[in-house]
Every structure is written in C-alpha cells, then in structure tokens.
C-alpha cells in the first residue's frame, strides 16, 4: 500500500488563510462594530455552501449532457440533489443566527460596506443560471441587467454560464427522449385523455346534482370547473401549449411535459421511481430557493425597514418581487393540476409493464 506524507488538520483545511479572512471595515476606520464579525462570517459560510452546491450541480449537469443516461447515474443525481436540499435547509436556518444582530447593531457598520451587497453574490447568480433561470425572469435593478453590477471577470463568467446548457434544458431534453408514451396498440395520451374527460364529466354532474348549494354557488363552481377543463385542453393540444409557452405561461416543451406527467402518474413502476424522485427534488430545490428568498426579504425588512439596500436596491420591496418571479421549474410545480386518481389511470399493457419493471432470469 502506497504511503503518503502525513497531513496536518490546520494545513489541510487552510485554516490560517480561512480564519484570517475576516477584515472588519469598521475597525479599519477606527469605529469597530462588534457585530460586523458575525455579518462577515455568516456570509462567508453562505459562500462556502454555495461552492458546494455548484460542485453538486456541475456533476449532475455533466451526467445529463450525454444522449444516454445510465439508470445508475439517475440514482447518483438523486443523492446529490438531495444533498443540495439539505444544504438549502441549513442556509434558511442560518438566517436565524444573522437575526441575533439587531437593526441598530447593523447600522453601526452599514455605511462602511456600501455598495457591497448580497445582490453581488457571484456564486448565487451562477447557481441560478446553472439551475436554468430564464434571464427574462430577472427583476431589473435601476433598469440595468444584473451582470452590470459585477466585476468584469465575473461578468464574463456569468455570461458564459447563461450560454451553456442549464440543468433545466438538459432535463427537458432527457424527458423528451422518454420512451413508453406510445407502443404498438397503446397510446398513453389518448387513453389518458379519455380518462380525464370521464373524470371531468363526472365532476360536472356532481356539481349540477348537488342539492345543498345555492344557484349562485353552483354557477361559481361550474365556472371554476370550466377553467379546470380549459387547463386540460391546453395539455392535450400542442398548439395551445405552444401558445402558452410563447406567452411565458409555460416553459417546458409539449413532449417533455407529457413525459414528466407519465413519470408522475406511473411512479410506482420500478424503473420510474428514481426519475420521479429526481423530478421531485428539482421542485424541492426550487421551493427551498423561494423559501430562502422570502425569509431573506423578511429579515431585510426587519433589519432596515423600507430603507434602500446597501447595493442600491429598494431593499425589502426588491427582494419580495424576486420571490415568485425566480422559479425555474414552475411547470413541474403545476404538474399536480393534471393528476387523476390511480383508480382511473389507463392500465398499462403487459409489454410496457415488463419494460418498466425489473425482470431477472437465469438465462445467460
């Protein structure tokens, strides 16, 4: 067994460099503020975890660049995305530590750090781009693109990250390649459509025949039912779907949407369990990003009220605007709209069930 030179804990972790990287500007300007140390360490910890998230994302993105993705890699991707969600939960909880600093404590050093801002977190913007945030979804800041607030070297890297295939686009292509939607003698989409029409017709009759609601209430429920039916019409008609994509109301392609729905509806089939977990984790990551943005906006409101942020944004109002606009996997969020009860799912033909299961024989 090959022997390696002994490693010393402090040297291996680079602690001398790491622990000496907290330079208090308030101290430099002879007005030392005790809580500036906390502010720096919390944000440095964020950046370290962002680095780990990028490390995990890059590995998953590299797996999905290939035309054929081994089933083993789906399992690996699931474990790495799950790690990201655990990191995100930690990042949300970390805000509690920052909130031990009061508004007046922050004001002791706030002027020294202007215009530095979390808005300029280069790694956080990279995460957004790698996940697949559409540049048109970004909230403009002072009518300028977000890249203009970064140093030139970071602007270049951010632009490159926008031009590369994001996880969203790679997952979309992977879904478009999903088999099983059609086979000889079985068209999933036509079978599903018939089941949906039956379900919607039964729901309508339930509303019409309900003896305990007023006519006004009945009409409201019938209108809501028609809206539901309209949503289903869009998923059955590619032209309607493409129209919604054009209006930025949907983003994922027609075939990818079908494949994602098929995976969700038949997720109990052995070979679809890992893809289902994978799609679920993408929604989890998006949801936790939204939760972090919301908690961050609340913290900023608590810390500076309605003052402008250190980076020149409108502070809390700007952060609040980004909460809903920055979802990447909205199509997967909305997938539950198109679920139908298991009891009404079209039964799968035996040949497809065999392909979706794990069958082992003693034959070589």
UniProtKB/TrEMBL annotation:
**E.C. numbers:** 1.13.11.11
Q: Which GO terms describe its molecular function?
A: heme binding; L-tryptophan 2,3-dioxygenase activity; metal ion binding
The UniProt annotation places heme binding at 296
| Catalytic activity reported | L-tryptophan + O2 = N-formyl-L-kynurenine
Q: Which Pfam families match?
A: Trp_dioxygenase
Binding residues annotated for substrate, in chain numbering:
39-43, 110, 310
Its BP terms in the Gene Ontology are: L-tryptophan catabolic process to acetyl-CoA; L-tryptophan catabolic process to kynurenine
Question: In which pathway does this enzyme or protein participate?
Answer: Amino-acid degradation; L-tryptophan degradation via kynurenine pathway; L-kynurenine from L-tryptophan: step 1/2
What is the free-text note on the cofactor? Answer: Binds 1 heme group per subunit.
Q: What does this protein do?
A: Heme-dependent dioxygenase that catalyzes the oxidative cleavage of the L-tryptophan (L-Trp) pyrrole ring and converts L-tryptophan to N-formyl-L-kynurenine. Catalyzes the oxidative cleavage of the indole moiety.
The protein, known as: Tryptophan 2,3-dioxygenase
- The source organism is Uabimicrobium amorphum
- Recite the lineage of the species: Bacteria, Pseudomonadati, Planctomycetota, Candidatus Uabimicrobiia, Candidatus Uabimicrobiales
